[in-house]
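Quick one: sequence plus pyridoxal-5'-phosphate SMILES, need structure tokens.
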Amino acid sequence: MYEHLKQGDAEVFVALDGEEKREAEGLELIPSENYVSLAVREALGSVLTNKYSEGYPGKRYYGGQEFTDQAETIAIERAKQLFGAKFANVQPHSGANANIALYMALMEPGDTVMGMDLSHGGHLTHGHPVTYISKVFNFIRYKMKDVSTGEIDYDEMLEVAKREKPKVLLAGYSAYSRELDYAKFVSIAREVGAVAVMDISHIAGLIAGKAVKNPFDYGFDVMTSTTHKTLRGPRGGIILTRESEELAKKIDKAVFPGLQGGPLMNTIAAKAVCFGEALKPSFEAYAKQVVENASAMAIAFQKGGVRLIAGGTSNHLILADVWSSFGISGHEAETLLDAAGMTLNKNVIADDTRKPLDPSGIRFGTPAITSRGMGRVEATRVAELMLDVLKNGESSVERVRTEVKELAQKFPIPESFA
Ligand SMILES: *Cc1c(COP(=O)(O)O)cnc(C)c1O
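Reply:
Sure thing.
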């Protein structure tokens, strides 16, 4: 691996080689990360990075597009099939860009978006005050009604939406472990004249693999997503439109030329490969196993007396309150577990009393360990190892790290997915 780099640039080679080893020897529990196949990596590292392809298939600004058009068309057709969409834009460089383009397509500056409160699971790009986009549009919030079950306060959502008249009603999250009531979202959006949008960044793979519900089946108008989380593809974004050609045209214009320049054609080819993998029946088995493994970890944590936000999980991720359960902060937990070879992230919990950089919770999930072939038994064992470290602190780190390394060696990162 990296023969030419090793010869030509020893400094960068060292960084890549180090990351190869880190990924192989540790357990990745960050719920937004995964391992891509070598086929995806070949497309990513391909000659398509040399090409300028501003525009869309059949309507480009430069010549020489016969093969880029092929790659992008395959990506579009597969994305449509995977999610049941009539239109797909596969050009957003990232999930953040997909969301910004969507806001640009549907609103004028100053217009209102209603999304999930950020401490209740919403994403930075849903209008966090540190983002530029939060200065352009007016973001208002809904929350959970009951943190012990994760139920959203739909009555309040309707009341606020009626008063504030959002142009976009945004569902979706990066730190929420339950399914939303999609029918309620759509009915509220229709009642106030908003476009119903779901940001499926975290659960795209679970939707594609039919392990959770598809918001389009409940009438959502648009879905934005990343392609690198549960979907197990290259780092990037997509925007899917269920039905409306008018919306899809606005979205295409917002992505290019509205927001971006030339598309990353190598990434788009890699997206096509990832969508092809996700269309295989084996991907359904993967997605279902991801959810089952998360549920096994949640059960182990609850047996260990840990407080879980939303009372457990119905998807791939778990939010645990380590401050009230173990008297250590999320930051301390993250550092200890990392030393023991398990990578995850600290996370704010609903209405956190601690600061964002040192919050009360940790967030972890099963997409990556499931890609390594782990099942219920191993997921439960990983949860037990985490609990060992969280309960016993520093004194357990050495011992646990040895077992983590053994487990990682028994389940090497696959080069392809059957
Ligand atoms: C990850 C995520 C994004 C942003 O994706 P990037 O590719 O990191 O820009 C947007 N929305 C949600 C809900 C996410 O989880």
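DSSP finds 17 helices and 17 strands in the chain. The two ends are 22 Å apart (CA to CA).
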